[in-house]
Amino acid sequence: MGKLKFNKSAWNAMVKEIIETEGVARMQRVADAANAHLDRDGYMVSVEGDDPLTKRDYRATVITATEDAMYDNARNNRLVNEFHKAGGA
């Protein structure tokens, strides 16, 4: 019986592409919904990951980039409350 050989570089490229095409757009919707509660944008999308990519190190997230956003999120649990705006199946 032969061994199954996994093409890690192809897998990493596919994961990166999916995060950039799907994940960023979804997290941008969350950031936009959260920013609607502020006078100026304080929630931003961040993409993290290194080469070589590992199973859990490439992701798109929404971060609190200003003190106003940090306060708003702490007081109102804003990111959790707006997470449904990300959409999905």
Present the secondary structure layout.
Blueprint (H helix, E strand, L loop, with lengths): L7 H28 L7 E6 L10 E6 L2 H10 L1 H5 L7
Antiparallel strand pairs: 1-2
Descriptors:
single chain, 89 residues, alpha+beta, two-stranded antiparallel ribbon, elongated
Provide structural commentary.
- The chain is built from three helices and two strands, in the order αββαα.
- Strands 1-2 form a two-stranded antiparallel ribbon.
- It is an alpha+beta fold.
- The protein is elongated and about 60 Å long.
Query: What's the SSE pattern?
Result: HEEHH
Low-confidence stretches: none
Q: Kindly, what is the distance between the CA atoms of the first and last residues, rounded to a whole number of angstroms?
A: 38 Å
User: Please, how many domains?
Assistant: 1
Rg, rounded, reads 17 Å
| Count of separate DSSP helical elements | 3
* Class by alpha and beta content: alpha+beta
Number of strands: 2
